[in-house]
Amino acid sequence: MVSFNEFSTVPSLLRNVVENIHKPEETFLIHKKNNEWENISFKQTLDTADAVAAFFLSKGIAKGDRMGLMIENGPDYVYYDQGIQQIGAINVSIYPTLSEQEVEYIINDSGIKAILIGNPFLYKKILKIADNCRHLQYIIPAFAEYTKTTVPQGLNKTIISFEELIKEGKELVSTYQVKIKETRAILRPSDTSSLIYTSGTTGTPKGVMLSHSNFVENVKVCLQQIPIIDETDVFLSFLPLSHVFERTATYHVCCAQGCKIAYAQSLELLAKNMAEIKPTVMSCVPRLLERIHDKAIKSGTAEGGLKAKIFLWALETGQNYRHQIEAGKTPGIVLAVEKRIAEKLVFSKIKEKTGGRLKFMISGGAALPKNVGEFFGNLGIKILEGFGLTETSPVMSVTEYDRQVYGTVGRIIPGIEVAIQHIESKEMISIQTHESFAADFECAEGEIIVRGHCVMQGYFNKPAETAEAIDKNNWFHTGDIGRFYKGNLQITDRLKNMIVNAYGKNVYPTPVENIYLKSLKIESLFLIGDKREYLTAIIIPNRESLQEKFNLSDAYFLQPDIFINEPEIIDWIGQDIRKLSNELSKFERIKNFRIKRNPFSIDEGEITPTMKIKRKVVEKIYAEAINELYTEAVDAD
């Protein structure tokens, strides 16, 4: 475990590694270049970061200036971030999927002075809006072909490639070396390190101000809660660094502990990259785990016969073995032998596809369905769940490595308080800390609120919104509903998502949706029913399963009709809806549904970059179809 200086800042983490853990020439970053994996040392990283710092210092960039990034994960992100952080500038990472209007708003609201751009598409987007961005001075393409793009006539911005910027910066390092060290030394934990704009399901994006202390303390306590992470680990990074989860759980953790970071080429090549890199740790989102689960189940049972029987027997054996271990018991000889056979025949083949070295995966960003977590547990692949928001740096709780409670998001991290507050009366139901943990503790549900080192400094230039989110007693109101279960935090849903039906019954969509997502025919679904007599849903089918079952071509999904109307497909989905409804209370069951041909879209404004559905937007766009669902109900009782 790394020993931290109490007043550490983000740029001090990596330098601590070089001084105390690894030699400067050892590998830190790994990425694919010219179809070959290339290793980049700690020294190369820090030298390039110094070049970035020297360049910007020569241009008058100073402490507190906001500096933008709109770029895919990779070494360039690290060079730029480390360079600007050590001179006190503030990282403003922008989701590449945002619209021109949203990007323009963020650049102007934050006052970005320079922005690093990752590809031609994003470069064109920036060039279109650059003249409207009054503070923007430098546009920095990080790819060679930028010269092929026509620059608007009269553009009053300096365009310099990142390669040229680094080259110029290296020539300036000797001149600015002392100043770089001085600015790095006077950084305070309370200084703002980053502005991260919430995509939000409603309203204008807000810039969350996170300090160096927010990030560093979050990393320290996460490593304390998961002490198995060490300097030999290899993380595979694929979630966007514009999101706080990947920034903290992979990038900052590796900077603190000296782990290697390998960058996946793309989501499409993730499986290939996992096999090549053989990571020991990965941060991921539930949807990825759900897809791995679905494919494994389908592959293991598709042929039927003996192969399917062996697969299902292996899963049952893994479950029995897991239950014994979790109960603190030693599995008997017969079960232990059966587990070894299951490992050889089934589990090892699934693990090979992840590279075969995974110690664990960290799941965040949304709740992981309980059955999916248990599935991986049966295989012997440990999934640690975490919970938090951009406003909480992000981690508030995370699963302990040696104590798994499926369907929960772990134990409260050290140094903060998490409370459950009654939604209506605002009375405190329970206040818990890391130290007050009791394995048998449970309480009623309410809104989750938090105070302590993880809570943001506030929303940039939005004092009213900050005051609304953080009350006079410094409690940050998350807007999430949850409770404590077996000592761990358990998330029920978002407060804004809560459906109150016409009879006054409260329905939390997420747990209901997770029951229906057990169907391999369903990719996702959107639950409807606020102030209505019963629940309905818009369902996104699993495209692969649908195409295979009904022999559909890709052209089928390009048809103009938004919804699928073929009775045989509706009945095929309906079979699983009726079957799974038996696991729910009557008022939680879907009585009617429409099948949407294609997933909800970021481009249409239906979902956020973090894949959260904008409920009000979707309800407005599909109002006519939703109303039709209530003209005639399909009884699922």
What does this structure look like?
With 637 residues, this protein is an alpha/beta fold. The protein folds into 3 domains: 10-187 and 226-280, 3-Layer(aba) Sandwich (Rossmann fold), CATH 3.40.50; 284-356 and 358-496, ANL, N-terminal domain (Rossmann fold, 3-Layer(aba) Sandwich); 498-629, GMP Synthetase, Chain A, domain 3 (2-Layer Sandwich). The chain is 38% helix and 21% strand. The chain is built from 19 helices and 28 strands. The strands form 5 sheets. It has a 9-stranded mixed sheet with strand order 2-1-11-10-12-13-14-15-16, with helices on both faces. An 8-stranded mixed sheet has the order 7-6-5-3-4-8-9-20, sandwiched between helices. A 5-stranded antiparallel sheet has the order 18-17-19-21-22. Strand 10 (234-237), helix 8 (244-257) and strand 11 form a beta-alpha-beta unit. The relative contact order is 0.08.
